[in-house]
Write a structure and sequence with these properties.
348 residues, alpha/beta, Rossmann fold, 2 domains, 5-stranded parallel beta sheet, 15 helices, 12 strands, 39% helix, globular
Length: 348
């Protein structure tokens, strides 16, 4: 097929955090006169988040499950489905945050493809980085770690800052958000995100997460436990944490993080969003810490719990300074510059 210089920018949303990441990018692309089409995988809260923010999208494919075989079969099936969906739209560039299926589809269609990623120990980076035309990563990641996975210096853009500065660009928290979703703003509010126990990068047991839940169960907090999938929600409910598992409306991740007194996550975007906004953030990730989280820990913006003793000493209290740190749109504009620069290129 090849690239069509005047075709739309094609963005694929493979996971729920990608909705907030690409929302300001899409707005800036359209501000500059570019057409945009969006595909979304039916996984976690991705489709619900698109609906929440009024983002026009087409649902293409779902998750392949936790097994490696299921992931591989699903990757091929979704790549073909995306190719069928995108072909009549004649896009000029494919863009995602490591949507493996889109990258494979773009390769088959000879489309230039840009992928973003901020965790250097994700095994599937080997596929994504080799299939991409341009790889966007925070400058905190070393060139050596990227090159070993196929992101050569020629195809890598190491950008300043963190990807969460894109998702949070221009964000101003609502002072009444907790009440608007039927939560009590007078109570100590802890937002908790479980491990991505279905992901390739999370192939191990995480007992610290269970210990944190036990600590919160006796702390008298208002705990908002945001399960990643329906299956994970059922597992947590069956384990005795039904009063924590959030069953209300789909939440704006930025708002609930900004309103929290503490954010606890087993790695992932929500921890880093809290760190960028200046909200106390704690990680119980049991895997190998990436460069971004190591830097946040060194800067005192992220506390990493490594033992039961760390959990017992965890401070769970009201956050007196309710102000969050403003985030500019400078990084958004840099991303859009890079996306638009890919138009007209063609993969070999």
């Amino acid at each position: 097929m090849g690239a069509q210089r005047d075709g739309p920018i094609w963005i694929d949303l493979a996971n729920s955090p990608h909705v907030l990441f690409f929302r300001p990018i899409i707005a800036e692309l359209r501000k500059r006169g570019a057409a945009v089409v969006v595909s979304a995988r039916d996984f976690a809260q991705t489709v619900d988040m698109c609906r929440l923010f009024g983002m026009e999208h087409s649902v293409v494919g779902a998750h392949g499950g936790a097994s490696l075989n299921g992931k591989a079969v699903n990757l091929v099936a979704r790549a073909r489905a995306l190719q069928r969906w995108a072909k009549p739209l004649r896009p000029c560039v494919a863009v995602s945050h490591n949507s493996y299926a889109q990258l494979v589809a773009a390769r088959m269609m000879r489309l230039p493809a840009m992928t973003a990623m901020d965790y250097e120990y994700q095994p599937a980076n080997h596929l994504a980085f080799r299939a991409a035309t341009l790889v966007a990563v925070p400058e905190l990641l070393t060139a050596a770690s990227l090159a070993s996975q196929g992101a050569t210096a020629r195809k890598t853009w190491r950008y300043p800052g963190l990807k969460e500065q894109v998702a949070l660009a221009g964000f101003v928290p609502s002072p009444d958000y907790l009440r608007s979703v039927s939560l009590d703003p007078s109570r100590v509010t802890v937002v908790v995100r479980p491990p991505a126990d279905f992901a390739l990068y999370h192939r191990f047991s995480n007992t610290l997460f269970r210990d944190v839940l036990e600590r919160l169960a006796t702390a008298g907090t208002q705990t908002v436990l945001l399960a990643r999938t329906d299956e994970q929600a059922r597992t947590l409910t069956d384990a005795g944490y039904a009063d924590m598992v959030w069953t209300g409306p789909v939440l704006d991740g930025r708002e609930i993080v900004a309103a929290a007194d503490l954010v606890v996550s087993a790695g992932g975007t929500m921890n880093r969003e809290a760190a960028v906004l200046g909200v106390p953030a704690v990680s119980v990730y049991a895997g190998r810490l990436g460069a971004v989280d190591r830097w946040l820990e060194q800067e005192g913006r992220l506390a990493v719990l490594r033992s039961a003793e760390d959990i017992s000493e965890l401070q769970i209290e009201r956050r007196h300074d309710r102000q969050t740190e403003p985030v500019s749109d400078a990084l958004v504009r840099l991303f859009v510059d890079r996306i638009l620069a890919l138009r007209g290129e063609e993969t070999s």
